[in-house]
Write a structure and sequence with these properties.
By secondary structure, the chain is of the alpha+beta class. 31% of the residues lie in helices and 25% in strands. The longest helix has 11 residues, at 24-34. The radius of gyration is 14 Å and the shape is globular. The chain starts with 10 loop residues before the first strand and ends with a helix.
């Protein structure tokens, strides 16, 4: 993994809804499989995890390079950008198996997506590190 060369703090927030047919533990594991964090079951219906630092994106960084989804993820990150934050969605079922699958729309993930929100003052540099222009 290439070193992230930014000085500002990278904050990640990961959220996934827990459906009545799902185990909160399995959803927590799905979240932890794709983003290095310690997710918690909250509010009786969702799993939320927070993490700090680019290292938390290691799994996404590594897996996105082994697929042809880099351009898709870059487009999504740029389209969803607002000031110093952006977000993207991952397929929850794939995340449960430790596989990073980016989805454009939450309907592409039948059990609902995992939403990853990234906040950083140097967001352009972070996006270029995570999904460089080819």
């Amino acid at each position: 993994m290439q070193k992230l060369h930014i000085t500002s703090l990278v904050e990640l927030k990961v959220e996934a809804r827990v459906n009545p047919s799902e185990s909160p533990e399995r959803v927590k594991n799905a979240v932890a499989n794709v983003v290095q964090c310690t997710p918690e079951y909250r509010y009786g219906y969702k799993v939320v995890g927070k993490s700090f630092g680019g290292e938390s994106l290691r799994t996404i960084y590594e897996q996105i390079r082994s697929r042809t989804a880099m351009g898709v993820l870059r487009r999504i990150l740029l389209n969803n950008r607002a000031d110093n934050s952006t977000w993207f969605l991952l397929n929850k079922q794939a995340a449960a198996r430790g596989i990073v699958v980016v989805v454009d729309d939450e309907r592409e993930s039948p059990l609902g997506p995992v939403r990853v929100t990234i906040s950083c003052e140097e967001l352009d540099a972070l996006i270029d590190w995570l999904v460089p222009v080819r």
